[in-house]
Amino acid sequence: MTVSDPAASRLDPAALARYVDHTLLKPEATAEDVAALVAEGARLGVFSVCVSPSFLPLDLSGAPGLKVATVCGFPSGKHRSEVKAAEAARSVADGADEVDMVIDVGAARAGDWDGVTADIAAVRAAVPAPALLKVIIESAALDDDAVVGACRAAQSAGADFVKTSTGFHPAGGATVHAVRLMAQTVGGALGVKASGGIRTAEDALAMVAAGATRLGLSGTAAVLAGVEAGPGY
């Protein structure tokens, strides 16, 4: 990947950290792992930490200003809308500032845009402002037309962000092409989160150059260290 946007290439580690949802969604994660994630996120200056909903509420006593994100209908999206809505509502009650929901990817592949929109709208109703709703479309599993359709459904349903990937799908994670297409589709009306397989500074900066306004990273420290090292990391 290459960084084509000069503004993205000029981001320093502190500036790039403010794009980051510092993420731990492994099924084997423990409470101790999550506490370490929060401490590391505070030290790195990230925007938020993203954890599984069962870990909420988080102890943020040592991390003032750190936002909390969680997931909903994760990772398959094959949950009834009312179940997703209940999960999202509980997460917000437990202190989540942002909820990243997974659409029914099969419905998107089938072109059932009414169904996709209704699913997102149900979760939106359970996550009222100021909480943010991000919509994971699993872009690697969709063709370009379906990526566009999913973004339009998210916008129509009142979401705040579209997001590339769970990071768990065998089709893969974020790509520069998908991020650029998503950013062009929403035209600045929604944020764009790139997530899944972003492991280097070059990857992260390329996503920002393509239009990402948020990054989901698990290896945040290594990415930021690569930005600090500069070209040739």
From TrEMBL:
Give the pathway. Carbohydrate degradation; 2-deoxy-D-ribose 1-phosphate degradation; D-glyceraldehyde 3-phosphate and acetaldehyde from 2-deoxy-alpha-D-ribose 1-phosphate: step 2/2
Under catalytic activity, the entry for this protein gives: 2-deoxy-D-ribose 5-phosphate = D-glyceraldehyde 3-phosphate + acetaldehyde
Q: What is its EC number?
A: 4.1.2.4
**Active site annotation, chain numbering:** 100, 163, 193
Q: Which Gene3D superfamilies match?
A: Aldolase class I
Q: Does the keyword Lipoprotein apply?
A: no
Per the record, the GO terms for biological process are: 2-deoxyribose 1-phosphate catabolic process; carbohydrate catabolic process; deoxyribonucleotide catabolic process
- Keywords noted in UniProt: Cytoplasm, Lyase, Schiff base
What family is it from? Belongs to the DeoC/FbaB aldolase family. DeoC type 1 subfamily.
This one is known as Deoxyribose-phosphate aldolase
Per the UniProt record, the source organism is: Cellulomonas marina
